[in-house]
Each structure stands twice: as structure tokens, then as C-alpha cells.
Backbone:
């Protein structure tokens, strides 16, 4: 029984970390209609930006999030927009394949300068908290709170800000949005900025939880995809629901399967979901 | 130098087969397969395990092709009714799954150690250099045979239906074509070709491990096919060999840059490959041997 509760608690914490880059992926998909594989690269870029700010400048963990968001959002938004914009008329699959090429470039630029070594963040060591028979690390709880705060901020942005409303309008009906005077170019950039920035924040959260290397992003890519498909491709609340469901499913699966199969859980979950409920938990509406 | 050339041409032939496989699903039927490396791995393991249990090599290759069909149908079962982007995500996951199973199921695949001593046909009779030449001939013959068959397929009513599905599924369905069946068949056949390529690779190297199931292979083949010409078997074959030339070329390019560590050289080569894919998509998306559209018959 305790093992089960512990698994659920771990699942919520894993899921919350996953939800942040999954929202980023879904935001890009909702507006630009292509699955961006380069998300993996931006996760890694954000993780490294946060790592530099933490170990070289000595910033505390919560201050790393805006650093990673701006670094990944600005670099990612500009690079992904510029390098894939001209492919958009050729269709979503062509852009997706372009994003694979882009991802290889980003990942290896990082590897070129940083090497393959694992790097940890410089964090105070704290003993785990124990209550009611389960165990959680203070850093994990802090990560959970930060992830939740970011999600609230994203929802407020989408609900009330001009750009957020514009993104939802374009996701809903691009032609109608253009007719109402919403500039698709601006909104595309805003979606990429938000999406890549959130991917970068996700990278820092993952790095705070474990450690980072140039493959950090690629390793979570499948889970991010799985979370997005589970929740409904292109749906932002769906990404959160999918990520939490996947996090819990991964931890529960660890009770019966060897831990090396962890990433396999996402694949099985996608196949089951697509077979029985292809629209995902919450459907495909963006918001 | 000669043995290097023979080696390169053999691997180039295997890449050409993979490119032909990708061309069938992507070029002809308009479906994407990001799990090419997974099918390659399934074929390699299937044949290595079958021949390891005492089956003759040709039988092993047959098993590999059948295993490719089986997993191809499994992967597409849930996704073909859905939009294309789902297939992209599921096939990518599939390749990772193959790697995970190969790593973990030690009783079947020997885990991370990989399977060594995979039967190399006629190697004892011919000696090492004779075997390499013999194997190059086999691989080249298979490439030519598959190329010929797929060219025939493209020209047949079946191939035209596939291209009609690629251009407009709804229209093809409206014209009374069983779209789903065509897609399943095309994907399964393509998976069989990729699996055969994997089996050929495994018996050539006599060794196969989970490290060979890396997503980079899939990217190589996308680069080759896009550069060669999507939708045209000749483009796929040319692209398969060309991408090998390019990959080997980056090795020499990295050699002339002084003062780099091994990891930096590897990173630099992969940057070139990713950048090449982006450049080709931008400048020559139809490839150097573009698809030829036959004229509509006069009525």
C-alpha cells in the first residue's frame, strides 16, 4: 500500500515536470500544426542555460527558470522560425522532418562545446521529508510548486493577454483569425517563443531533478510526445492531463517492470490511447 | 583501399535498400516512417536469432522479411486511420521500443553485449576478401532486384493508386479504392524491405547490438532519399549511395580540422548531417532525380 502511494506521489512529481515541455510542444502544434522534434534540442539548451546561471553565476533554483525561458525562447523562437518558415507551404510532415534536422544540429552544437559528460546543478543537499510512510525530497516539492506556478502563468497568459487570445484564435480557425486582423506571422513567432521557452524551463526542472547532458532533451522527447497524444494532440490542458497520467503510469509500471522499460510505457500508452480513444483524454481543442 | 571501397559499396547498398523502403511508404503512399532504424533492427535480430538456432542464412533473411511485415502491421494497426502526424510519433516510439527490448531481453538478444558470430555465408570457403566481394555482389543484386520491382510497382495500376492516395485520400476513396488496405500493404512491404536490409547488415558484420538501432540511421536515410528524389526508386538508390559518400566525406572533413577531441569531431559530423538535411529540404526538396509524372493518356 505504501509502495502504491509512493508511486502515485512520484508520478505526480514526474508528470508535473513533463507537463511544462509538453505544454510547449502543444502550443507550437496548436498554432503551427506540425510536431516539432526540435523541442528536444530546446529542452537541452534551456537546461544548459540554467546550469551556467546556477554554477557560474550562483543563481538559486527559482531564478534559473526565467533565464532558461528567455534563452530557449529567444534563441529557439528565432532559430526555429527562421530555419523552418520556408518549409511550411510544403506541409506539416516536411516541417517535422526539417525539425529533426534542426534538432540534430542543436544537440550537437551543445555536445561540441560541452562534451558528453553528465553535469549536476549546484544545489543544497537536504534530507528527504518523511510523512505517513512516504518519502519526498524538498527539491522535488520545490520543482512541483515551480511547475504548477508556470502552468498557472501560461493559462493566465492564454486566457487574458492579447497574444494569448490571438494564439487561441489562430489555433481554432486560422482563416477567421486572419480576417479579424490577427497577424499570423506575429502569432507564429509568439507560439514558438512560448513553446521553446517552456521547453527550456522543462529542461531546467529535469536538470534540478536529475542531471543534464546533450541528450537530456532527446530522452524526454518520447514522453513529451506521449503526454501530448494522451491528452489530445494540440490541446494545452490536455498536455497537462496527459503528462500527469503518463507520469503516474510510468511510476506504477515500475512496480511490475524493470526500470529500463520506463520510456516504453509512453509508447504502449500511445498505442492504447490511439486504438481506443484517438482524440485523447481532452480532445484536440487548443484551450 | 580496395577493401575499404568494397566495404563502402556494401554499406551503400544497404542504405539504398533502406531508402527504397522509405520511398515506398513516403514517396509513393505519402506516409511517414520515422522508425526505419527499428525495422532495420528487427530484421537484423530476427535473422541473427533464426540462423543462430541453426537455420540456413537464406531462411534467416526470409524470417527477417516476415518479422518486418508482422511488426509493420502491429505499428500501423492503431494509427493508419488517423492523421499523418500520429504515424510519425508512433514510428519514432517504435524504434526506441525495439532498442529497449533488445537491451533488456537478454535471453533473446544477449542485451547490450549484442549477438556476435552471426553466420557469414560462404566465408570459410571464400576467405575474408573473397567473402567481402561475394557479399557485395549479393547486396548489389538485391538492390537491383528491389529497385526493378519497385519501378514496376510504380508503373502499375497498384502504384498509381498509391500515388493517388498520397495526393488525395478522400478522392481515392471516392473512386472506390480501399485506401486503408493499400496503406497497410505498402507499409508492410516497406517494413519487410527495411528488415531485409537489417538482416543483410547483420550477416555482413557478423555482429549486431542495440547500439546499431540508433535514430541517426533513419535520419541518414531521410537525407539520402530527399537529396536523391522522393517518389522515384532511382532517386532512392542514388540517394542511398550518395548519403554514404557524404557521411564518409564528413569523416575526412573532420580529419583536416586540427585540435578537436573525438567527441567534438563526432558532434561536428552530426551537425553537418543535420544541416545538410535542412539545406536539401530548402533548396532541392524534389531531389536531384525528381519524380517524373507520366502524361495522362489521350482519350
Residues:
Amino acid at each position: 500500500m505504501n509502495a502504491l502511494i509512493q508511486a502515485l506521489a512520484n508520478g505526480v512529481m514526474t508528470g508535473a515536470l513533463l507537463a511544462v515541455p509538453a505544454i510547449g510542444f502543444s502550443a507550437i502544434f496548436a498554432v503551427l500544426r506540425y510536431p516539432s522534434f526540435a523541442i528536444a534540442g530546446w529542452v537541452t539548451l534551456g537546461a544548459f542555460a540554467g546550469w551556467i546561471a546556477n554554477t557560474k553565476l550562483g543563481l538559486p533554483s527559482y531564478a534559473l527558470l526565467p533565464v532558461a525561458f528567455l534563452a530557449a525562447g529567444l534563441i529557439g523562437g528565432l532559430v526555429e522560425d527562421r530555419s523552418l518558415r520556408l518549409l511550411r507551404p510544403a506541409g506539416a510532415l516536411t516541417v517535422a522532418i526539417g525539425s529533426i534536422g534542426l534538432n540534430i544540429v542543436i544537440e550537437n552544437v551543445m555536445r561540441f562545446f560541452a562534451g558528453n559528460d553528465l553535469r549536476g546543478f549546484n544545489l543544497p543537499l537536504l534530507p528527504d521529508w518523511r510523512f505517513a510512510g512516504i518519502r519526498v525530497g524538498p527539491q522535488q516539492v520545490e520543482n512541483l510548486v515551480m511547475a504548477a506556478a508556470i502552468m498557472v502563468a501560461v493559462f493566465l497568459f492564454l486566457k487574458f493577454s492579447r497574444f494569448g487570445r490571438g494564439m487561441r484564435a489562430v489555433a481554432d480557425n486560422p482563416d477567421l483569425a486572419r480576417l479579424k486582423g490577427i497577424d499570423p506571422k506575429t502569432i507564429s513567432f509568439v507560439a514558438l517563443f512560448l513553446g521553446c521557452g517552456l521547453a527550456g524551463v522543462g529542461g531546467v526542472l529535469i536538470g534540478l531533478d536529475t542531471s543534464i547532458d546533450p541528450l537530456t532533451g532527446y530522452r524526454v522527447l518520447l514522453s513529451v510526445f506521449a503526454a501530448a497524444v494522451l491528452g489530445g494532440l494540440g490541446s494545452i490542458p490536455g498536455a497537462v492531463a496527459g503528462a500527469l497520467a503518463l507520469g503516474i503510469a510510468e511510476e506504477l509500471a515500475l512496480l511490475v517492470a524493470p526500470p529500463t522499460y520506463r520510456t516504453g510505457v509512453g509508447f504502449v500508452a500511445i498505442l492504447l490511447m490511439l486504438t481506443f480513444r484517438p482524440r485523447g483524454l481532452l480532445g484536440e481543442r487548443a484551450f | 583501399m580496395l577493401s575499404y571501397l568494397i566495404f563502402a559499396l556494401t554499406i551503400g547498398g544497404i542504405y539504398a535498400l533502406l531508402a527504397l523502403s522509405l520511398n515506398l511508404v513516403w514517396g509513393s503512399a505519402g506516409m511517414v516512417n520515422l522508425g526505419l532504424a527499428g525495422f532495420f533492427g528487427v530484421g537484423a535480430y530476427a535473422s541473427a536469432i533464426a540462423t543462430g538456432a541453426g537455420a540456413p542464412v537464406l531462411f534467416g533473411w526470409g524470417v527477417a522479411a516476415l518479422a518486418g511485415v508482422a511488426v509493420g502491421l502491429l505499428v500501423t494497426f492503431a494509427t493508419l486511420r488517423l492523421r499523418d502526424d500520429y504515424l510519425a510519433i508512433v514510428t519514432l516510439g517504435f524504434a526506441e521500443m525495439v532498442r529497449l527490448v533488445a537491451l533488456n531481453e537478454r535471453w533473446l538478444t544477449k542485451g547490450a553485449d549484442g549477438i556476435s558470430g552471426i553466420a557469414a555465408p560462404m566465408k570459410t570457403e571464400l576467405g575474408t576478401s573473397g567473402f567481402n566481394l561475394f557479399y557485395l555482389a549479393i547486396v548489389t543484386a538485391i538492390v537491383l532486384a528491389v529497385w526493378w520491382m519497385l519501378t514496376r510497382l510504380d508503373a502499375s495500376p497498384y502504384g498509381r493508386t498509391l500515388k493517388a492516395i498520397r495526393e488525395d485520400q478522400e478522392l481515392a476513396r471516392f473512386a472506390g479504392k480501399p485506401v486503408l488496405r493499400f496503406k497497410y500493404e505498402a507499409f508492410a512491404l516497406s517494413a519487410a524491405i527495411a528488415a531485409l536490409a537489417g538482416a543483410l547488415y547483420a550477416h555482413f558484420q557478423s555482429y549486431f547490438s542495440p547500439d546499431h538501432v540508433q535514430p541517426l540511421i533513419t535520419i541518414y536515410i531521410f537525407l539520402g532519399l530527399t537529396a536523391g528524389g522522393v517518389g522515384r526508386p532511382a532517386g532512392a538508390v542514388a540517394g542511398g549511395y550518395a548519403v554514404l559518400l557524404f557521411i564518409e566525406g564528413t569523416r575526412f572533413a573532420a580529419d583536416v580540422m586540427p585540435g578537436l577531441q573525438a567527441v567534438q569531431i563526432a558532434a561536428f559530423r552530426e551537425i553537418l548531417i543535420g544541416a545538410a538535411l535542412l539545406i536539401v529540404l530548402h533548396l532541392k526538396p524534389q531531389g536531384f532525380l525528381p519524380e517524373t509524372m507520366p502524361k495522362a493518356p489521350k482519350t
